[in-house]
Amino acid sequence: MLALGRLLLGGLYVAGGIHHFFVIVPLTEAIEARGVPFAKWVLILGSLFQIVAGILLMLGLFVAAAAFGLIVFTLAATTMLLNFWDMQGTARDSAINTWKTNMAIIGGLLIAAAGAM
Protein backbone atom coordinates (compact mmCIF):
# COMPACT_ATOMS: atom_id res chain seq x y z
CA MET A 1 0.00 0.00 0.00
CA LEU A 2 2.85 2.38 0.76
CA ALA A 3 4.41 1.78 -2.67
CA LEU A 4 1.08 2.38 -4.41
CA GLY A 5 0.52 5.54 -2.36
CA ARG A 6 3.99 6.83 -3.29
CA LEU A 7 3.35 5.99 -6.93
CA LEU A 8 0.09 7.95 -6.94
CA LEU A 9 1.43 10.93 -5.02
CA GLY A 10 4.65 11.10 -7.02
CA GLY A 11 2.74 10.69 -10.27
CA LEU A 12 0.55 13.66 -9.38
CA TYR A 13 3.62 15.87 -9.07
CA VAL A 14 5.35 14.49 -12.17
CA ALA A 15 2.24 15.02 -14.30
CA GLY A 16 1.72 18.52 -12.87
CA GLY A 17 5.33 19.51 -13.43
CA ILE A 18 5.25 18.32 -17.03
CA HIS A 19 1.94 20.10 -17.63
CA HIS A 20 3.46 23.41 -16.51
CA PHE A 21 5.77 23.39 -19.53
CA PHE A 22 2.70 23.46 -21.77
CA VAL A 23 1.19 26.49 -20.01
CA ILE A 24 4.27 28.57 -19.24
CA VAL A 25 2.82 31.90 -20.38
CA PRO A 26 -0.39 31.96 -18.29
CA LEU A 27 1.33 30.49 -15.23
CA THR A 28 4.18 32.98 -15.50
CA GLU A 29 1.63 35.80 -15.71
CA ALA A 30 -0.21 34.46 -12.64
CA ILE A 31 3.04 34.27 -10.67
CA GLU A 32 4.09 37.76 -11.84
CA ALA A 33 0.69 39.09 -10.75
CA ARG A 34 1.55 37.95 -7.22
CA GLY A 35 4.72 40.06 -7.32
CA VAL A 36 7.16 37.17 -7.44
CA PRO A 37 10.47 38.24 -9.04
CA PHE A 38 11.88 36.15 -11.90
CA ALA A 39 8.50 34.45 -12.28
CA LYS A 40 9.44 32.39 -15.33
CA TRP A 41 12.54 31.01 -13.61
CA VAL A 42 10.56 30.30 -10.45
CA LEU A 43 8.06 28.37 -12.57
CA ILE A 44 10.68 26.42 -14.53
CA LEU A 45 12.81 25.53 -11.51
CA GLY A 46 9.75 24.69 -9.42
CA SER A 47 8.38 22.46 -12.16
CA LEU A 48 11.71 20.66 -12.56
CA PHE A 49 11.86 20.17 -8.79
CA GLN A 50 8.32 18.80 -8.84
CA ILE A 51 9.22 16.28 -11.53
CA VAL A 52 12.46 15.10 -9.91
CA ALA A 53 11.02 14.86 -6.39
CA GLY A 54 7.93 13.10 -7.75
CA ILE A 55 10.08 10.54 -9.57
CA LEU A 56 12.13 9.94 -6.41
CA LEU A 57 8.93 9.39 -4.46
CA MET A 58 7.60 7.00 -7.11
CA LEU A 59 10.83 4.99 -7.15
CA GLY A 60 11.05 4.87 -3.35
CA LEU A 61 14.37 6.73 -3.30
CA PHE A 62 15.09 9.40 -0.68
CA VAL A 63 11.38 9.24 0.15
CA ALA A 64 11.44 11.38 3.29
CA ALA A 65 13.53 14.11 1.65
CA ALA A 66 11.38 14.07 -1.51
CA ALA A 67 8.17 14.18 0.54
CA PHE A 68 9.35 17.05 2.74
CA GLY A 69 10.56 18.95 -0.32
CA LEU A 70 7.19 18.49 -1.98
CA ILE A 71 5.45 19.65 1.21
CA VAL A 72 7.43 22.90 1.14
CA PHE A 73 6.78 23.24 -2.59
CA THR A 74 3.04 22.65 -2.14
CA LEU A 75 2.77 25.16 0.71
CA ALA A 76 4.68 27.79 -1.27
CA ALA A 77 2.68 27.27 -4.46
CA THR A 78 -0.63 27.20 -2.59
CA THR A 79 0.13 30.41 -0.72
CA MET A 80 1.47 32.13 -3.82
CA LEU A 81 -1.34 31.22 -6.24
CA LEU A 82 -4.44 30.49 -4.18
CA ASN A 83 -4.90 33.69 -2.21
CA PHE A 84 -8.57 33.08 -1.48
CA TRP A 85 -8.52 35.90 1.10
CA ASP A 86 -8.41 38.36 -1.82
CA MET A 87 -11.15 36.62 -3.83
CA GLN A 88 -14.91 36.62 -3.85
CA GLY A 89 -17.73 34.40 -5.05
CA THR A 90 -17.06 31.19 -6.93
CA ALA A 91 -13.37 32.02 -7.42
CA ARG A 92 -12.98 32.17 -3.63
CA ASP A 93 -14.92 28.93 -3.15
CA SER A 94 -12.78 27.18 -5.77
CA ALA A 95 -9.54 28.44 -4.20
CA ILE A 96 -10.65 27.31 -0.73
CA ASN A 97 -11.50 23.85 -2.08
CA THR A 98 -8.10 23.63 -3.75
CA TRP A 99 -6.46 24.65 -0.45
CA LYS A 100 -8.30 21.79 1.25
CA THR A 101 -7.19 19.36 -1.45
CA ASN A 102 -3.59 20.50 -1.15
CA MET A 103 -3.68 20.06 2.63
CA ALA A 104 -4.93 16.49 2.11
CA ILE A 105 -2.07 15.88 -0.36
CA ILE A 106 0.36 17.20 2.25
CA GLY A 107 -1.17 14.70 4.68
CA GLY A 108 -0.39 11.93 2.21
CA LEU A 109 3.17 13.19 1.83
CA LEU A 110 3.58 13.15 5.62
CA ILE A 111 2.36 9.54 5.69
CA ALA A 112 4.81 8.64 2.90
CA ALA A 113 7.67 10.30 4.80
CA ALA A 114 6.71 8.53 8.04
CA GLY A 115 6.59 5.18 6.24
CA ALA A 116 10.17 5.71 5.07
CA MET A 117 11.55 6.62 8.48
TrEMBL record:
It is found in: Membrane. The keyword Metal-binding does not apply. Pfam families: DoxX. The chain crosses the membrane at residues 6-26, 97-116. Keywords: Membrane, Transmembrane, Transmembrane helix. The keyword Magnesium does not apply. It comes from the Bacteria. This is DoxD family transmembrane protein. GO terms for cellular component: membrane. It is a multi-pass membrane protein. InterPro entries: DoxX (IPR032808). It comes from Rhizobium johnstonii (strain DSM 114642 / LMG 32736 / 3841) (Rhizobium leguminosarum bv. viciae).
